[in-house]
Amino acid sequence: MLVTPPSDNYLGDKVVELACGAEHTLARTSNGMVYGWGSNRKNQLGLTSDYGSEVHSPVRLQAKTANGELLSNKRVISIAAGELYSLALTDRGKVYA
User: In whole angstroms, what separates CA 43 from the centre of its chain?
Assistant: First the structure.
C-alpha cells in the first residue's frame, strides 16, 4: 500500500518513531502527536467512524472519548503496536490503548 502524507502534513512535524502491528502502522511526530493507518477492522486504530474498514492515509489518533480523556491534548513519548492493538505512552507516564 502506498501511503500519502496526512492532509495536515503532520502539522509541520517530523516523524520520529514508527510502530507496526499485523495490518496497521502508527507514527509519532517530534511534537508527540500520533497518526495511524491500515486496518481498523478490530478498532486497533481507535477510529470509531472507520470501524471495520481500511484507513489508507495517516489520520491523527485519539483515545476513546468514552474513557473521558482525549489523546489529542497529550504529549506522546513512545508508541507500540501489536496484532490488534495500539499503545501510546505520554510524558506523564500514562498509557493509552
Answer: 11
Residue 71 identity: L
Q: Cell digits for 58?
A: 495517516
Cα gap 36→95, rounded to integer Å: 17
Tens of pLDDT, residues 3-53: 788 888 888 899 999 999 999 999 999 999 999 999 988 888 887 676 678
Among 3, 23, 32, smallest CA distance to 81 is for 23
d(CA 2, CA 69): 32
Contacts of 80 (CB under 8 A, 6+ apart): 19, 26, 86, 87
- Look up residue 38 and give its three cell numbers: 491500515
H-helix segments, the chain: none
Give the full edge-to-edge strand order of the sheet including 86-90.
76-81, 86-90, 95-96
